[in-house]
């Protein structure tokens, strides 16, 4: 894709970079009202069957994901035209989803600016090593990376590690505004949880909020994972990296059933979102349908997305994600070459 074509592609979605107050308010109503009603229904169902409660919790977690999409748009300043309105709604939905507003807003902006750039990894994205980097890493790094990339760890421990622990603390280089916002949101979360425990009892609260938190956090990590970790993704070094190609080729179109698409706020149109973060979630599908080149982005179904669980390393040579098994022989060769450089006599 030439630079003029890239520029034209960005211009083609510009008409959708507008928030509509009426649509935004409607989305708040059809997200937060059902969320609160379902939460109360889960509490009410405790008197009948906890299995019924769990079923309601699963549905409620879907609306938590939808609330996170509103939070996500507020971080990009695309949900409302007014900055203060985005900040206020971002804090409210951040409390509901346990995500610090300013902290996530800043790290996510870096993610958008550096996505798929091999020379600028590490902020706002998942840990990805290339085949060569993994081969050259120490045994401790290799072990840690294997543990980190294991699905049971990423989606089993990840929700607690990220949402309950990591997000409660500031980054080392965080500025004062970000630090204060994290403190504020921690206080608000504790206050809301304490109030709920006082109102219905801590056991009932944990029996409801526990599953809702865990399921929604796990699904949130999955969505973020699958939108960038697909076989023919895009990664380049700084001198070859392109923002538009990173958006269109490095982000997937996660084609979901209509109900799931609605619950996830159209975030499956991730290639459109990365091309233009100013497009609010409710116009992502329109932008996709109105721009033929965007319809050529990598399309992944739910069934296809499950294959991404095996991807561990980025293969720079073949420009694709691979499993450890697929490059086992190559990793052994690279290890042998490294040994040869350090100790030629031992290698011979």
Mean pLDDT: 92
Q: What is the makeup of the main sheet?
A: 3 strands, mixed
**C-alpha geometry:** globular
What share of residues are in beta strands? under 5%
Sheet with the most strands: spatial strand order: 1-4-5
Q: Termini, distance in Å?
A: 47 Å
Count the DSSP helices: 17
C-alpha Rg (nearest Å): 22 Å
Class from helix and strand fractions? mainly alpha
Order of helices and strands: HHHHHEHHHHHHEHHHEHEEHH
Low-confidence stretches: none
User: In total, how many beta strands?
Assistant: 5
Give the % helix: 55-70%
Describe this structure in words.
There is one protein chain. The protein is mainly α and 348 residues long. Helix 3 packs antiparallel against helix 4 and helix 3 crosses helix 5. The chain is built from 17 helices and 5 strands. Strand 4 and strand 5 (320-322) form a beta hairpin. The mean pLDDT is 92. The strands form 2 sheets. It has a 3-stranded mixed sheet.
Structure summary:
The chain has 348 residues and is mostly helical.
Secondary-structure map with pairings?
Layout: H1 3-12, H2 21-45, H3 50-76, H4 83-97, H5 101-114, E1 129-130, H6 131-136, H7 139-149, H8 151-165, H9 176-200, H10 202-226, H11 243-249, E2 253-254, H12 258-263, H13 270-275, H14 284-289, E3 299-300, H15 302-305, E4 313-315, E5 320-322, H16 328-342, H17 344-347
Parallel strand pairs: 1-4, 2-3
Antiparallel strand pairs: 4-5
